[in-house]
Amino acid sequence: MNSDSTAAVIGASGYSGAELVKILSRHPRVKLGPLFANASAGKRMDELYPVLRGRVETTLRPYTAEAACTSDVVFIALPSGEAMNIVPELLKRGKRVVDLGGDFRFQDAQIYQQFYKRQHTATDIIPQAVYGFPEWDADAIRSAKLVSNPGCYPTSAILPLAPLLKEGLISPKGIVVNSLSGVSGAGRSTSIDHSFVEVNESVKAYKVGVHQHSPEIETALGRLSGKSVTVTFVPHLIPITRGIYTTIYANPTAPLTDDIVAAAFKKYYERAPFVRILGPAVPEIKSVAGTNYIDIGWKIYPENGQIIVLATIDNLIKGAAGQAVQSMNLMFGFAETEGLQ
């Protein structure tokens, strides 16, 4: 891929799609190709998002494979259930694809069908998909034709937990993940449940015990750590626009010190450009908003025999568009940080 190569975005009018457009419009090695939308087709990108005035004047169009395949890489930022209808044709035409939805996050289609409540219609493509984090799966991502971008909640939970599990510092059983998300995580929806009046001055748990990110977290942690992992995951909606705050409760396998925990994170993330280890400190959403960073802190709680790990991300960037571009950079041999700092 060279400086004249292009990236198409399917679902460019949504929040994650718009973040992709913003990042790609300033990427020094990529030129924006066609931008696709359904209801917003015919409108200009800078009409929907005035922040893009003078930068992206592209008119959104209905999706066609022919138009998408004029680009070297295609990003899909659509609700789950859509990508499985699009990806097979793109791969057949030799395109490289990064999917931000959930259609290819599981190698087992039965898990997808159980938690996403729909039939998977592209099961023959699933083995080609690389679900991965640039911090852990760089080699697989570099050679991938299809990258399945991790979910926003799982990103905020898996990256803090993986080193501790890999080093055997915490039990793989009985992990509790409590996550708070801004409203943009639900997408650019007109649902009354996500209107200002409904979410303001309130906090609400949802999909308790049945959220589709529960098996995603367990499956990914099991793969990375080589252990059978069980997680209780509870997501909450909070009245902010963007950001995720995740608090994790885990049981140490032996007495821990701050130095032991710090050494584990350093071992795996010392060269990870977007992972910031704060030490025994408390991260804040405002410190990562608008960035591709994840901030991780912790508190050892010997009185209760626990360690509490805290992590913050911007759900639209490190939890979606930024991480997708980070993977694209690896796929095409760019510096991992291109367009993201």
Key terms:
341 residues; alpha/beta; Rossmann fold; 7-stranded mixed beta sheet; 11 helices; 13 strands; globular
Description:
With 341 residues, this protein is α/β, with parallel strands linked by helices. The protein has two domains: 6-150 and 319-331, Rossmann fold, CATH 3.40.50.720; 153-315, Dihydrodipicolinate Reductase, domain 2, CATH 3.30.360. The protein has eleven helices and 13 strands. The strands form two sheets. The chain has a seven-stranded mixed sheet. A six-stranded parallel sheet has the order 2-1-3-4-6-5. Helix 6 links the parallel strand 5 and strand 6. The mean pLDDT is 94.
Summarize the structure.
By secondary structure, the protein is α/β, with parallel strands linked by helices.
Helix and strand topology:
Elements: E1 6-10, H1 15-25, E2 31-36, H2 45-48, H3 65-68, E3 73-76, H4 87-92, E4 96-99, H5 109-116, E5 129-131, H6 138-142, E6 146-148, H7 152-166, E7 175-181, H8 196-199, E8 204-205, H9 213-225, E9 231-237, E10 244-250, H10 258-269, E11 275-279, E12 294-301, E13 306-313, H11 317-331
Helix pairs in contact: 1-11, 7-9
How much helicity do the residues have? Answer: 25-40%
Quantity of strands, as a count: 13
Note the gap between the termini: 20 Å
Mean pLDDT: 94
